[in-house]
Amino acid sequence: MDNRIYEYAINSMNDRMNHYDPTSNDICRMLITGDKTLVSVCEEKSDKMKVFLNNINLKTELRKPTFYKELLQALELNPDEYILEPSDEFIEDRSYNCRHTLEFVCNKDIYTKIYSDIKINEVHRGENDFRLEPNFGDIMYCVYEDDRVVAMSYYRPNHDKFEGTYAMQVSTRKEFRNKGYGKAVANAATADVCNKDGLALWVCQVENHVSIKIAENLGYIFLGGEIRIMK
Predict the structure, then answer these.
(1) What tens digit of pLDDT does each residue of 162-214 get?
(2) Do 94 and 136 have their domain in common?
C-alpha cells in the first residue's frame, strides 16, 4: 500500500475512534480502513458477535449489500425491523437505523483515465452556475443539456493531518442517468486531484452499484467501509 494511503488510513481510524461516543444508541459498529479494523457491540451481543466474526472474512463480507441482514440474523435480531439508509433519496418521516458505506481511494499511480466524447464544462467560483460552499474546491466539472447543469463532480479539500486528500462528490439528475455523464464528470474531477498529486477519496452507500462501478473504472481501490446498526 502507498505510504500516503496507509497514513491516511491510520489517521482516519484514529480520528473516528477519538470521536466515538460510548453513550450512542449503536447496537454495533464495524469500521475497516486499510488493514485496521474496529468492531464495537453492545455487551449483551458480544458473544454472538465473536462467533460471527470467527466464521467470516470481514473485509470481503463488508462489501456485500446483504451483509447488514446477515449480521442482524447472527445477533438474533429481526432484519425486517431495520431499514438501510438509501443511496439516493430519503423518504420523509422514515427512520433509518442502519448505515453502510464503502470507501475507495485513488492517486496518480493507479488512476485510469477515461476517454469520452461527452463535453465537460468547468464552472469556476464566482460564475453564474457555481453553487459550492467555501469549504469546497473552486471548480465544478459539469455536463449541460438545454442550458442547465445535469451532472456535476467536485471535491472538498481536507486539511491538517488529512492535508492532500480530497473528498469526491458526483451528482447526476435522475432523468439524465445511464448516459455516462457521471463517469465523465468524475473522471475530470479525479484527474484534477491526481494532477495535484493528491489522494481522491470516494465514499458511497454499499448498494450504490453505479457509484462503485464508476470508482473502480477510474482506478479507485477499495480501502474499507463502515456499518452502523442503531437501536
Answers:
(1) 999 999 999 999 999 999 999 999 999 999 999 999 999 999 999 999 999 99
(2) no
pLDDT at residue 22, as a whole number:
59
Q: Which three cell numbers stand for residue 125?
A: 467560483
How many C-beta atoms lie closer than 10 Å to residue 156's C-beta? Answer: 16
The Cα 127–Cα 175 span in angstroms is 25
pLDDT tens digit string along 91-147? 666 778 999 999 999 999 999 999 999 999 999 999 999 999 999 999 999 999 999
Alpha-carbon distance 93 to 216, whole Å?
A: 34
What does the block give as the cell for 206?
454499499
**CB neighbours (10 Å) of residue 224?**
25
Collapsing DSSP states into helix, strand and coil, what is residue 139? strand
Grid coordinates in use for 156? 472538498
**Same domain for 113 and 95:** no
d(CA 197, CA 78): 46
Please, what's the largest Cα pairwise distance for the chain? 59
Percentage of the chain exceeding pLDDT 70: 95
Q: What is the mean pLDDT of residues 24-37?
A: 90
Among 104, 132, 163, the domain-final residue is 104
Domain residues for the domain of 31 are 3-104
Domain membership of residue 210 (yes or no) is no
166: nearest Cα among 141, 143, 129 = 141
Do residues 226 and 99 touch, judged by C-beta distance below 8 A?
Answer: yes
| Strand extents, DSSP E, 24-138 | 26-33, 36-41, 98-106, 121-124
Q: Is 145 a domain residue?
A: yes
